[in-house]
Amino acid sequence: MKAQRSTSPGVATAMCALILAVLLAALDQTIVSTALPRIAEDLNGFDDIAWVSAAYLLASTAVTPLWGKLGDMYGRKRLYLVSTTIFLIASVACGLVQNLPELIGSRVLQGVGGGGMIVLTFALVGDIAAPSQRGRYQAMFGSVYGVASIVGPLLGGVFTDQLSWRWAFLINLPIGAVALVIAARALPAVARQTTARIDYLGASMLAAIATGLILITSFGARWGWGSPAILGLIAATVALAVLLVPVERHAAAPVLPPAMFASWTVVGPSLIAFVANAAMFSVLVYLPTYLQIVHGVSATLSGISMLPLVAGLVASQSLAGRWAANAGRLRRILLAGLLVNLAGLLLLSTIGAATNALVLSISFLITGVGIGMVPMVVMTTVQNSVPAADLGAASAVVTFARSIGAAFGVAVFGTLLNTGFADRTRGLPGIGGFDAGRPDTIAQLPAASRDVALEAFAHATATGYLWMAPTLAIGILLALFLRPARRTEGTNGVPGLATHKDTVPTA
Fold this sequence. Notes:
There is one protein chain. The chain has 18 helices and two strands. It has 507 residues and is mostly helical. The protein is globular. 55% of the residues are buried.
């Protein structure tokens, strides 16, 4: 059946608010990165500066399932407005802090709001769009994420150099205020009534599990993977995960409904989201570092050099969304995206210190095309496989998997990069203080060591992508067994929006 292509004014206006929210939350994961050295200098907190980024990621990941469930129980619009307000208040606090502990605390609060904005945005698409149209809208969000991953560090650098690092947080206010006003007027208020008690125990245990996972992936290399702290965190996280199963089975309104995990169309895409995001963030985080260190470009120029990747991502997101809406061939699109992404990683595994700009641009473009085709299909497949009452919880599962996958990918690739670099430069004069997070480190080496170090860093980066390729191979195997669910329904009863019925066929 051919899906309708029209979009009602109500849907278009509502989507504007949701896109702005995704832009804010996505930017706040990246915009601070280039400002961290200046923040550490101004607030005298070099030793604990990593917590500025980790605090946001930890908080946003930990609260994601709770926001999703609360939206299912009490209405997503209401919770969306609350989470956005929390995010904006925390942004003001971040821009006004006077010391590092205040900034870390404000970032935790900002993560609480940002986590709600993200998961409720994805779930609200299920409220305002028919199943066959969800892919188009999810594709828009994916494009915003890709653009934010490149633009964020650029903006952070510009604000830090030209104004103040505080504007990396204060810029949220005008954008967020517009999003809040549009959302209050345009988002549908779906009445929900429930007498069930909130699953506080399950939510607390899940938050603790998320905290453990983020701490393990973010600080494993720094604290030592075999250190008592990391081993203790691993043991505690595994124990909590095992105990969470019976807790959720007996909860009246579980934050993660156990029945959801009996469906491969929820579990499979969530696992794919994990491995795909692990590969994606190893690219988005470390390719600019490679460009700055090996090719000696500025942070601004490294972002410009990444534009082919963004162009490929945006184009493939848009096309994949249209193909899914027209034909519902979700599994084929997913497999194509994973295969192209794998090809991109293999191309990146060949880069060196002398790789020219044209070859890099082609590799970036192919990688971006592959990255762009996956997130939309994953979220759409999951949303089409659950009833409307569980859209928030289902969206939270995918968002949670994405966040943990991103942290895992960054941590693993960082370990591979540092280990590979250390192996090839062992004994080289002046190399002892190398830090992959600081692009100026190699530039400060003695001239005799610099060329060797540059080649070693390029080789370590390429080898890292070669080792990351199997994660996408796992995703391809998982996708082969995926059968997207058939859905024949309108927009879950949301008044005032598109009401056509359509079917999403299996691949």
